[in-house]
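Fold this sequence, please.
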Amino acid sequence: MSFTKENIIKLVQDNNIKFIRMQFTDVFGQLKNVTITASQLEKALNNQLMFDGSSIEGFVRINESDQYLHPDLDTFTIFPWQSENEKVARLICDIVQPDGTPFSGAPRGVLRKTLSKAKEMGFSAFNIGPECEFFLFQVNEQGKPTTMTNDEAGYFDLGPLDRGEKVRRDICLALEKMRFEVEASHHEVAAGQHEIDFKYSDALDSADKIMTFKLAVKIMARKAGLHATFMPKPLFGKSGSGMHINMSLFRNNQNVFYDANDVRGLSKEAYSFIAGILAHINGITAITNPLVNSYKRLVPGYEAPCYIAWSASNRSALVRIPAARGQSTRVELRSPDSACNPYLALAVCLAAGLDGIEKGLTPPKEITKDIFAMSEDEHKSHGIKNLPATLAEALSALEADKLLCDTLGSHIVNSYIAGKRKEWNEYCTRVSSWEVEKYLVNY
């Protein structure tokens, strides 16, 4: 839906909206905002709203702090969870320097730039369908989150066993009021784990929707007296939460990945796109799986992929091709989790796929067997390698991948790697409860 400045001003007036959140996402995927009153809206719509970029981690230094928020008018929406007397709207913004140039450290700008590269190669759209999983936990007397789930249900269970059903329903209704097309919602494998899927859209809109989705889930959970988390692996011995990414490229409204004459229904571009993803996946993983905790999900036994392989149907593979063909043909990357910055994640995935297409890469042989059930020798004989086992390994792979570093730009690469290495070092020196229980008495 397209908006003009006049549309937005009228909607704010007609709906008696007092505050507008000017939102953007930092390098590490955290949603930020500057809230303005309705009296300042026209100034903001004229791209005159300045903020202090030095206060945002990974942005700019204190001596170059002035930056501008340029709202994307098409992202205007009214939050449905506020009362009639306290209505709040939002606009998602791009970050611009005082001289009018786009800020190189803005994740949304990185995705825009990568989409421009796709258009230069003749592709009209890069469509994304995310599958976002999350946990609902109880809170204690002080309102702090616990790791106690509010149900004991499993995959596709329903109420009354699934006590998160009402919260999911409320989330779906809120999303629909913000122009999401919700396709499905259900209980996931682990107790307290849920998934809500919304219709695919172009990559920039999809990344915006992922950020809005996470905000909506957390707010609606809090209203229900629960805590929602997108932490990849909050519980030992249980399935973790992922965010499978379904990707398709279009040229002149035709799905480039489909070829009716191929035995699998896949085009040469589809095979090369897959090959590009696999060639760069170690560095990609530093972006799509950004936490120390992310790598506790990527282990055998919980359906999350940990081996570099692809298949037309095999769910144990890293890259899978769902059964639908024709305009619905898509490549599914199963490793990402929702803790990632969606703008950066989609940018590096697209860059890797385009690199595969440009170079005419061919993927390795398809793996049809259950990879988790294969022996180490079988893995070696099929050339199957492991994904990075830790955040530190993934960061080293990202540093060594020139294509991904060029895609992200030096500002983001330097800020991201420095912040994540600090996170890794903190983890390595922290004494865990497991260590105390294991060693304190015996040694």
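DSSP finds twelve helices and 19 strands in the chain. Residues 203-223 form the longest helix (21 residues).
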